[in-house]
Amino acid sequence: MKKKNFLPIVAMAGVLLLSSCAGKKALLECQSENKALTENYQNTREQLAAAQARANSLEEQLSQAKKDYARLQSSLDKSLTNASQNNVSIEKLVDQINESNQYIRHLVEVKSKSDSLNMVLTNNLTRSLSKEEMKEVDVQVLKGVVYISLADNMLYKSGSYEINDRAAETLSKIAKIITDYKDYDVLVEGNTDNVPISRENIRNNWDLSCLRASSVVQFLQTRYGVDPKRLTAGGRGEYNPLTTNNTEVGKQRNRRTQIIITPKLDQFMELIDKAPESE
User: Fold this and answer.
1) Which of 241, 256, 43, 71 is nearest to 148 (CA)?
2) What's the pTM value of the predicted model, to 2 decimals?
3) Measured on CA atoms in the order 54, 59, 60, 66, is the torsion positive or negative?
4) Alpha carbon 225 to chain centroid distance?
5) What distance in Å separates the CA atoms of residue 163 and residue 267, rounded to the nearest whole number?
6) b or e along 131-155 (b: 16 or more beta carbons within 10 Å of the residue's beta carbon)?
7) Strand partners, 137
8) How far is CA 172 from CA 114, 146, 209, 249, in A?
9) Among 7, 81, 259, 260, whose CB has the most other CB atoms within 10 angstroms?
C-alpha cells in the first residue's frame, strides 16, 4: 500500500522539476533578449544624435551659403554701378569679383573646419559616456555650438549647489574633451524651474543658478586642470525654460546645467570685419 502512494509523489516531483527548469530557461532567454534590445536602443540613440548634429550642421551651412551669395550679389551690383558711373575698367571689375569669390571660399573653409571639429567633438563625447550617463546627459549641436545638458539631480546634492560624488566621473569625461580641444571656449550655464528657493544664504533662483554654474566651473578647474581662462560661469535662473513648469516632469527638465562649447572664432570674425570693399 505504501509503494502505491509513493509512485504518484515521485511523478509529481518530476513534473515540478521539469516546470522549474523550463521557467529558468525562459527567464534567461528574456534577460538575454532584454540586454540585446537595450544595447540596440543605445546604439540607435547614438546614431540618431550624430545624424541630428550633422543635419543641423548642414542646415547652418546652407543658410550661410545663401547669405554669402546675397553678399556677393550685392557687391557685384555695387561694382557694376560704380563701373558705370566712374568708367572703371573691366579688368578692375573682374579683380574685384575674384577677390569677393576668394573671400567667400575662405569663409566656407573656416566654417567647414569648425563644423567638422564640432562633429568629431560630439561623437567622441557621446562614445565616452556610458549608457546610464546618456539617460541624463543630452548632447546636441545647434548653430555650430555644442550643447551638453545635464540634469540637476545627477550633478548636485538635493537643494544645493555642491557637486555630488556621482557627477565626478561624468564631469571627468567632459573635462577630457574640453582639454583635448584647446581652441574652444566653455560657458557653463545654470538653469532652474520657477519654484522659489528658500535657503538663508541663497536669495533666489538667480543666485542658485549662478552658484551651480560656478561650482561646475571650479570643479573643472581644480579637479581636472581645465584652463580657467577658457571658462565662463553664468546663471539664467528660471527664465530660460525648455518646457512648461506646470508639471513635475517639466520642472525636472528645466532644472539643468548646460556646458556650452564654442569654437574660438576670432579669426572668422576678423575675416568678416575685413571683407573686401568695392570701389
Assistant:
1) 256
2) 0.57
3) positive
4) 22
5) 36
6) eeeeebbbbebeebbbbbbbbbebb
7) 150
8) 24, 17, 21, 28
9) 259
State the residue for C-alpha cell 577677390: 99
pLDDT above 50 (res 261):
yes
Which amino acid appears at position 148 of this protein? I
Q: Give the CA distances from residue 274 to residues 192, 239, 268, in Å, rounded to whole numbers and listed in that order.
A: 41, 37, 10
How far is it, in rounded angstroms, from Cα 187 to Cα 226? 13
CB 236 within 8 A of CB 189: yes
- The answer to whether the beta carbons of residues 62 and 108 sit under 8 Å apart is no
Please state, in angstroms and rounded to a whole number, the distance separating the CA atoms of residues 42 and 226.
Answer: 30
- In the block, cell 552658484 appears at 211
3-state secondary structure the chain: CHHHHHHHHHHHHHHHHHHHHHHHHHHHHHHHHHHHHHHHHHHHHHHHHHHHHHHHHHHHHHHHHHHHHHHHHHHHHHHHHHHHHHCCCHHHHHHHHHHHHHHHHHHHHHHHHHHHHHHHHHHHHHHHCCHHHHCCEEEEEECCEEEEEEEHHHHECCCCCCECCCHHHHHHHHHHHHHHCCCEEEEEEEECCCCCCCECCECCHHHHHHHHHHHHHHHHHHHHCCCHHHEEEEECCCCCCCCCCCCHHHHHHHCEEEEEEEECCHHHHHHHHCCCCCC
pLDDT tens digits, one per residue of 191-240? 999 999 888 889 999 999 999 999 999 999 999 999 999 999 999 999 99
